[in-house]
Amino acid sequence: MSMPAPALALAVAVAAAVVVMPPAALAEGFRLAPYKDDLFTYPKIIKTDYGGDFVMVEFIEERDVNGRDEIPLKQAFDKMVDLKVNERKEDLRLRDGANSTTFLAVGRTRGDAKIIVIFMHGFHGDRTLPMEDLRFGGNFNRLKNLMVRNDGVYISPDFQGFGEQAKNQIKALMKYYAGISPGAPIILGCASTSCKITYRLLDDPESAALLSGVVLFGGGRHDPFLETPVVTNPEKWVPIYIGHGSKDATNNWVALELFFKAIKKASPDYPIKFDLFVNGVHGTPIRMSDWRMVINWMLEVEEAKTGG
Fold first, then answer.
1. Is residue 19 in some structural domain?
2. Any domain includes 133
3. Would you give the end-to-end CA distance of the chain in angstroms?
4. Residue 269 sits in which domain range?
5. 116 belongs to a structural domain
6. How many Cβ atoms sit within 10 Å of the Cβ of residue 98?
């Protein structure tokens, strides 16, 4: 099958040399502007701890699923989404040596983005899942709109497995987009099994240095991370957001709570937040997490770290 023209253009462009700048160059004071905040803000906070870094959020199916979805779990109400954003969506391919990565992207796909968000699907997904507009209460659609409306780019890639090859594919994407959007913060999101890729990227000093934040939805813990410079050296800290459901049958939330506490014990000031959605299941954080709040917190942390 022949590649579409945009994919061909990008595949050729990656051969050119690029200069990668670390996230220290992010624009001072840059934050995501409000978009449908009233529909996606947390409905009720049950409890907070660790100075607000650990938050228990109430999740009620009748309100948070049926109240957001015209067809529960399948189709969000019209008010939750804006489908015009898909006019800026492209199906692309990046070639980097032996790696060839197909991905969907929306926003400033060809460079000069102010912010870069990459989201990796879980075990049963593909690049189309994180581009879903109507599932998950419209929360991915909100993320897409936040990127387009704030001159950013949102990327959803395919990758091979969840090991070293996948890590190299995502790293190549990160390096490429860091090169064509110098100084733009890179936020990496993942769900379930793909969190293994994120940990591999955090263990790699080169890729970790490119990250301004990671979002872990329904994933497992990775104890070797506690010994990496990302945790032990404040200059290398990468903000971490964990979203988890208390009834997640795939990865028990208590293990992640202990992981969160272990990071806080190793580095009490480490920028990490844990939102536990009480009575939520494996996919609940994808539906409920407040993308604008999370990303703006990460941008604030990065700005403070770099003296902005």
1. no
2. yes
3. 48
4. 5-12+24-305
5. yes
6. 7
Q: Is residue 158 part of a domain?
A: yes
Q: Report the distance separating Cα 301 and Cα 280, nearest Å.
A: 28
Burial 242-278 (b: 16+ CB within 10 A, else e): bbbbbebeebebeebbebbeebbeebeebbbbbbbbb
Structural domain count, the chain: 1
Which of 104, 196, 187, 190 has its CA nearest to residue 150?
187
pLDDT in tens, 40-89: 999 999 999 999 999 999 999 999 999 999 999 999 999 999 999 999 99
Rounded Cα distance, 182 and 287, in Å: 31
C-alpha distances out from residue 268 to 71, 220, 231, 271, 303, Å: 44, 21, 10, 9, 19
Q: What is the pLDDT of residues 260-307, one digit of tens each?
A: 999 999 999 999 999 999 999 999 999 999 999 999 999 999 998 876
Q: Would you state the structure tokens that stand for residue 27, as one six-digit string?
A: 């624009």
CATH of the domain at 175: 3.40.50.1820
pTM over 0.90: yes
Q: Tell me, what DSSP letter sits at residue 247?
A: T
Task: Extract long-range pairs of 65-72: CB within 8 Å, 24+ residues apart.
Answer: 65/137, 65/287, 68/39, 68/137, 68/138, 68/287, 69/137
Residues facing 211 on adjacent strands: 186
